[in-house]
Amino acid sequence: MTKNILIAGFGGQGVLFAGKALAKMAMHSDLHVTWLPSYGPEMRGGAANCSVVISNEEIGSPLVPNPDILIALNRPSFDKFGPCVRSGGAIFADSSMIDERSDRTDIDAYYIPASRMAADNSLSGLANVIVLGYLLAKTSLFDYDAFLADLVSGIPASRAALVEGNTKALRLGYEYGCCGHEE
Amino acid sequence: MAKVLMKGNEAIAEAAIASGCLYYFGYPITPQTEISEYMAKRMPKVGGLCLQAESEIAAINMVLGASASGTRAMTSSSSPGISLKSEGISYLVGSDLPAVVVNVQRGGPGLGGIQPSQADYYQATKAYGHGDMHLIVLAPSTVQEMASLTGEAFDLADIYRTPVIILADGAIGQMMEPVDFSERRRREIPPKTWATCGHGGGRKHNIVNSLLMNPEDLENSIRDRFERYRKIEAEEVRYEEYMTEDADIVVVAFGIAARVCKSAVAAVRAEGIKAGLLRPITLWPFPSARILELADTAKAFLSVELSMGQMVSDVKLACECRRPVEFYGRTGGVIPAPGDVARKLAEMAREQM
Fold this sequence. Notes:
The complex is a heterodimer.
Chain A: E1 2-10, H1 15-28, E2 32-37, E3 47-55, E4 69-72, H2 75-81, E5 90-94, E6 108-112, H3 114-120, H4 127-138, H5 144-153, H6 161-178
Helix pairs in contact in A: 1-5, 3-4, 4-6, 5-6
Chain B: E1 4-7, H1 8-18, E2 21-26, H2 33-42, E3 49-52, H3 56-68, E4 72-77, H4 79-94, E5 99-105, H5 121-126, E6 136-138, H6 143-160, E7 163-169, H7 170-174, E8 176-179, H8 215-235, E9 239-242, E10 249-252, H9 255-269, E11 275-280, E12 282-284, H10 288-294, E13 300-305, H11 311-318, E14 325-329, H12 338-352
Parallel strand pairs in B: 2-3, 2-4, 4-5, 5-7, 6-7, 10-11, 10-13, 13-14
Antiparallel strand pairs in B: 1-8, 6-12, 9-11
């Protein structure tokens, strides 16, 4: 089993962090994993994306031209990468940033107003984690409790205040996916 | 030790420190600056020195000085910066000094771009400096190898008294994978009796120099060095093979290109095309003997590179024109998809029928 994941958005939305959280969880689950960022001027704003490949076999190419899972955090990413999603794959989109809806019938498209939920719950900058929670609810990629434990274990003691926010954000997204709030 | 998730660049820096490198001299350039950042953080904690030099030329000459004193020293850069270091690399060779030089390649020529490239193959394997010389060139293709080959590079440099090049690329430098630092064999290192270090008047003083005005002396020193090169060619060739035993088409690729090719080989195998992959880990010495052996069973070779085709000429030389050698590549920072390579393999398979 190999999952090709592409996470895309603006620089500063936590695109690389979200990918890293998935990659660490994969590593701690004894799976093979690669994480490849777009690099260069993107670090200073503009488009950013990262490719994560998770597999129970050794991974060849770390590039993800055709993702099984696309996490789109803004409209340009949704427009650019939505058509590239592999047939049978899924899009997870932050609908507070994307007013468009995919017209593809061969993939699953999931929408969550993650940025608005983050703002409403004083979770500034954690829309990425809200989408990860939503992803966990809608796929069998990782167990929610295990992922939460892994996510917060990576937070250093000096920044313990982040534990609460990340926990809340992940739960919000997960519950949104489980409780049928969706459009 | 448990596996850690790390960028390839960081893995090189950590592995260098774990191998006893105490001096790092660098100058920032994308896509390898994480090496400098990591060294700046860690070196002071292990009693070493990380110094940002005023230029790449200064950095390589600082490596020369540190190495002459008998310590392990390293510098790193990306393609344009490496060109600046080429004079110093030649001086290191002429002085018989060990050193590790990392090139995390980006597109060229000139300032080029910042995306991954393998277009410095000729430079690394043929002419990293002027004069009659070779360098050991190692080509990692995983983050784990970024770590293990860095350790290996320091050992090879000390054993053969030569600079060793790690020829990586922007993709492997920037990507993260799990890496285990306990996975490394350590080799026996001969004592550095030539080092220009303090000895309290206990011996005749050593001289490190690359200037030999008498032609016979210079010729003798080069001949000595080439005897070492012959030993390296006999003992240090390394490569990995994937499904080559019954392969009609043997793909030859290194670094990030080899990973793309491995995916492509697996894909075309599923369609009944008998392809295999030979991945050189040492680009010099090149696995020529193994390629010649494979020419007995393979019908054709395909060199896949992130360039307009450079290693392809070494593959042609290695198989002594006994089989056709084709090329597929992208350049300028573009990485081909496995599907691109698979299409080329399917095309070659059709031609063979």
